[in-house]
């Protein structure tokens, strides 16, 4: 059986904007989790991302990626900080980020500005849910635009986070631990 292959996602190679917040202090923990910023996805997720990039480009939009593959050790850091299964997958269950099949992202307009999604990335609040009632129409429209692009490319969404998309059936895949040998090392 062959080892799952993670593909590096780059601005030049994929036509995306990359802002890996877990390599910075601008995340819910307030400190960097990744020592180096490498954006990685499992091969089938990378292929679906390419479709999403094409669809977004046809609408004059660009995808901005906040997170993709996440080593299990990074998932543990997040769980230790926020042990709430509503927003953070328990290590025993495993995050689909740690399978290389999940991606956190938003949309940029033609000027490089993020579309208003009503909350920031990693806002672990009820307002971050898809279809949360009471959000302004333009926010609902922007979220639906992202949802349509990602679903058309083959991704599924989860209820609680407008920014999170994953390949259907991801739970059947093994968790990938490349924290020691791969380019995505932890702090």
Which secondary structure elements does this structure contain, and how are they paired or packed?
Elements: E1 6-8, H1 11-14, E2 17-18, E3 40-42, H2 43-58, E4 62-67, H3 72-81, E5 102-108, H4 137-152, E6 156-157, E7 164-166
Parallel strand pairs: 2-4
Antiparallel strand pairs: 1-3, 4-5, 5-7, 6-7
Helix pairs in contact: 2-4
In short:
This protein is α+β, with helices and mostly antiparallel strands and 187 residues long.
Question: Main attributes?
Answer:
7 strands, 4 helices, Muramoyl-pentapeptide Carboxypeptidase, domain 2, 25% helix
Question: What would you note in describing this structure?
Answer:
The chain has 187 residues and is an alpha+beta fold. The protein has one domain: Muramoyl-pentapeptide Carboxypeptidase, domain 2. The protein has a 5-stranded mixed beta sheet, covered by helices on one side. It has a two-stranded antiparallel ribbon with strand order 1-3. β6 and β7 form a beta hairpin. α2 packs across α4. The longest helix has 16 residues. The radius of gyration is 15 Å and the shape is globular. It starts with 5 loop residues before the first strand and ends in a 21-residue tail after the last strand. 37% of the residues are buried. The C terminus is likely disordered.
């Amino acid at each position: 059986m062959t080892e799952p292959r993670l593909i590096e996602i780059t601005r030049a190679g994929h036509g995306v904007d990359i802002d890996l917040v877990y390599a910075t202090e601008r995340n819910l923990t307030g400190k960097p989790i990744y020592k180096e910023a490498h954006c990685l996805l499992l091969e089938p997720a990378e292929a679906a991302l390419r479709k999403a990039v094409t669809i977004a480009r046809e609408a004059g939009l660009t995808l901005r990626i906040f997170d993709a593959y996440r080593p299990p050790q990074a998932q543990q850091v997040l769980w230790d900080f926020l042990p709430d299964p509503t927003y953070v997958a328990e290590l025993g269950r495993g995050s689909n980020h740690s399978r290389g099949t999940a991606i956190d992202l938003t949309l940029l307009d033609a000027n490089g500005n993020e579309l208003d999604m009503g909350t920031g990335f990693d806002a672990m609040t009820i307002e971050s849910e898809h279809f949360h009632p009471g959000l302004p129409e333009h926010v609902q429209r922007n979220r639906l635009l992202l949802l349509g692009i990602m679903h058309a490319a083959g991704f599924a969404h989860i209820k609680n986070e407008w920014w999170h998309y994953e390949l259907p059936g991801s739970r059947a895949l093994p968790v990938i631990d490349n924290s020691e040998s791969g380019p995505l090392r932890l702090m």
